[in-house]
Every structure is written in structure tokens, then in C-alpha cells.
Design goal:
single chain; globular; Arc Repressor Mutant, subunit A; mainly alpha; about 400 residues
Length: about 400
Amino acid sequence: MDYITVREAAEKWNISLRLAQKFCTEGRIPGAQKFGSTWAIPADADKPEDLRRKKKEPAARLPVQAVPDTPFTMMPLMNTPFRPGQCRKTVEAMMEGPQKDMAWAEYYYFSGQAERAAQAANPYLTSPDLGLRLSACWIYGYANLTTGQIRQARHALETVQRTLAEGEALPPNLRAAVSFVAAGAAVLLHLPLPEGLPSTREFLPLLPAGLRAFALYVQAHSLYLREDYAKSVGMVEAALAMGAEDYPISAIYLHLAAVMDYMRLRQLPQAQAHLLAAWDLARPDDLIEGFGEHHGLMDGMLESVFKEHWPEDLRRILDVTYRFSWGWRRIHNPDTGHDVADNLTTTEFSVAMLTAQGWTGKEIAAHMNISPNTVKRHLAEIKKKLGISNRNELKKYMLQ
């Protein structure tokens, strides 16, 4: 009998590697055999039925080019399952039209091409299709943060808030979409949730699978901001266990939220594992934007892992960080009255974040693979730049 690997089976059945491994461990592939830590699958084995979707989808998985699982054109790429490395092909396979245009805007944004993302989203800022309009506002708003066009960014994000206020008469699924974008825009800017926002329990079940996974990331991020790290990471782990990795964009953000939580819980091996899992999903398609956005909240884990193995990718990610963070602070600081530091290097910011959490110089040095003296030099420069004299004063300048 001929056998194939788990990866070959995943490609043959057009499913994620994680799901193929799950089928093996659950004994749902007749004739599959385990050798050490790997599985051998009969080459003629049929794809098992995915019980998670038995009540939601036909047994056969939708092809990559299929219309996303949604009755409106909301974030079509985020809401389409694809295998890592197939992101561009997924967009190219979509039917010509507004949905494909928006998918390109998403791809440009999540791959760190902010200027192209804003340009692609701009024509749909006033679309009569609410899903397209919301998607355009979100992509255009965040892309303009990165390009330094703060007035345009603020206008797009405020449009979402106005739509929420005016959305009482919308059908439930469309109001869920408005709520999803409004919550995401507020939480990712670390701003208070807008008035009139329904509870997550009300709108989450109405979202299609890909958007639901990202909405769970937003909820986990919100819990992180409330310092409920254990509950936040529990939500992330549950979302990933329920198949969120079928939607790589949402899964990347979920994994990055787990890095944030595990760093605050001082469980560094788990934080590193999630960072690597996010990179496994992102690297084949160069989806680096999320890593740049979350740099300051990952407490030096990015440098710790990437500096040795992917130095050029780290350089590009840090460029995203500098550009995005500059724009992010131009909205966050005035709207909250906080004074998050904007004159530190990314390394100084990581050292300052860890110091503000009570890490010792020796612990920071070990984590970031630098010497204790280098940590001291960074701290001296941080105090000089911020005009402070002791570690306790750092907290008001750091992301929370």
C-alpha cells in the first residue's frame, strides 16, 4: 500500500495541516499509522467528514475561490479559508468585481503595504453595500495610520462609529457586522468601546466563521487590556482549537494575542510557541502587518526569537512598527489623555515595558539575549528621553 504524509493529505483534501493531524489523532482515517511523531496515511484514503461543520456546511469543503461564508461582502479575504502560501492565489481566483477589489485591499494591508491598501480601499468608502463600506473604512483607516495621514484615518474610523449609532434599523446580520468593526476599531486603538455597542454574545453568533474568529481576537485583546490575561488566553486557545486556523489572517492575530497574554503571565515557552505558530501562518504569504502592530505588547519576544533566525524579516517588521505606532499614538494619546512614549527605539520600548512590569535587569538581559550592561545603558537612555528619574515613573509612558 502507498502512503502519504499528513502535509500531503492536507494539500490533497484542501484542509489545514492542523485539521489533518487532528483527524489522525482521533482515529478517523482508516489505515493511518503512527511512526514516532509522524503519521503515514493511505494514499487512497478519503477525507473524513469535519464534525465541527456538520450542521453548518456541506461535507465537501468549499474550494479556495468560493464566495466567502457571508450574505454580504464584509472583509472577503479574512473570511475565506486558504492554506498558508496561497493567499495571493486565493484573491486571484475570486470573481472580478468589488469583492475581489476589497480582498486585494486586505492583502495589501496585512502584508504591510499600507499605501496600496489605502488606494485599493478608497473607492469603496461610500459604497451602497454596507459590508464593502465598513471593510473599506477599516482598511483605509488603519492604512492611513501607518502612512501618517491622521485626518483621513480619523474620518474613516469615525464613519464606523456613526454607522453604529444609526444602525438600529439594520437587519441583525448587518448590525452584527457594524458592531464587529466598531468594537475592533476601538479595542485595537485602546479606546473605550463606543456607546450603543451590543454585547459580544449578541453579535458574535451572527458573524460568519472567519469574522467570528477575528471578533474573538478582539474580545481577547479587550480582556488583555483589563489585565484578565488567563481568561484572554483561554479564549484564544479555545478559538484555535475550534478551527480558527482555517482562516489564517484571524489565526495570526489570535496567536499574537496569546503571546501578549503568556508574556504577562511569565510563561515564556508558551509565548514563544504561539509566536512561532503565528509566523508559520504568516511567513509563506509575508503577512507581517500584525507582528508590527503588536510589537510593543509582546514584551521583547519578537526580538528574542527573530533576531537570530529572521533578522531581515525583523527589520521589515520593525519598520511597520515605527510607522504604525507613530500614527496610532496620534489618535490614542489625544483621545485618552495618556502619554504613551513615542521617542523610544523599539528595543528601548521593549526594555521599558518589561521594566515597568517589574522585570529585573538580569531577567530582561536573558530574555532579549543582550548583556545586563546593555540593559543598563538602555534604561539610562530611556530615563533621559522621558525625563524621569526612576523605574516607577515608567508605567505612565507604557502601553497597558
